[in-house]
Specification:
Order of helices and strands: HHEEHHEEEEH
Radius of gyration: 19 Å
CATH architecture of the largest domain: 3-Layer(aba) Sandwich
Oligomer: single chain
Largest sheet: 4 strands, antiparallel
Strand order of the largest sheet: 3-4-5-6
CATH topology of the largest domain: SMI1/KNR4-like
Structural class: alpha+beta
Strand content: 5-15%
Number of domains: 2
Number of strands: 6
Helix content: 25-40%
């Protein structure tokens, strides 16, 4: 695995499908209209199309990652992945706008308003993971994300919205600023070990 060093805390990488060819990677990038982060691109070409990460493969519908259920929103892959700090205020404001039944003359009017608000929330949630793909699924709604586009491309994140409504950086130094790890730094490690203190594995 030339180019992929292991740390003392390394884990054995699971075997997976063979690497992609240069032509296949170029075809996937062209179809998805993105440029894969350099380290991930090397992994696809030198190591595997999957293995430690969800497999990038071509189906009758085109290129996408196996296990990433967000195929219908593949248009968002071209949108830069946002840092969670950038949308925190907007998220709070949207919560405060939730319609209340007592504010409407009848149940039908409230239902229409609530459905419109809920649709806006769904779109907002979709955009929190724009520009990223699911690298690993962990069950119970948890996932490791790989940022593909934008200034954070090539970094790794934890989608913990199932329990805490947060997306967090996976980091080697949460006490010192929580710089998100790169794909190369993450690859030999376990995502659970890169979470903030107190974020242990579920029992």
């Amino acid at each position: 695995m030339r180019g992929f060093r292991r740390s003392r805390a390394s884990r054995s990488l699971p075997s997976g499908p063979p690497p992609l060819t240069t032509a296949e990677v170029a075809e996937a990038e062209a179809e998805l209209d993105v440029r894969f982060p350099a380290a991930y691109r090397r992994y696809l070409l030198q190591v595997s199309a999957g293995g430690a990460v969800c497999e990038l493969r071509k189906s009758a519908d085109g290129w996408w990652w196996a296990g990433d259920h967000r195929w219908p929103r593949r248009d968002l892959l071209r949108v830069p992945f946002p840092h969670p700090d950038d949308y925190a205020a907007a998220d709070d404001a949207l919560d405060r706008c939730e319609p209340r039944a007592e504010e409407y003359a009848d149940a039908a009017a409230f239902d229409r308003a609530w459905r419109a608000w809920d649709a806006e929330c769904e779109e907002f949630e979709d955009r929190k993971t724009a520009g990223a793909v699911i690298a690993q699924e962990h069950g119970c709604g948890f996932a490791t994300l790989l940022a593909i586009t934008g200034p954070l491309a090539g970094t790794m994140w934890w989608d913990g919205r199932a329990t805490c409504d947060l997306i967090l950086p996976l980091s080697l130094d949460h006490a010192g600023g929580a710089r998100p790890v790169t794909f190369d730094e993450w690859l030999p490690r376990d995502s659970w070990d890169l979470l903030p203190p107190g974020w242990g594995r579920p029992v």
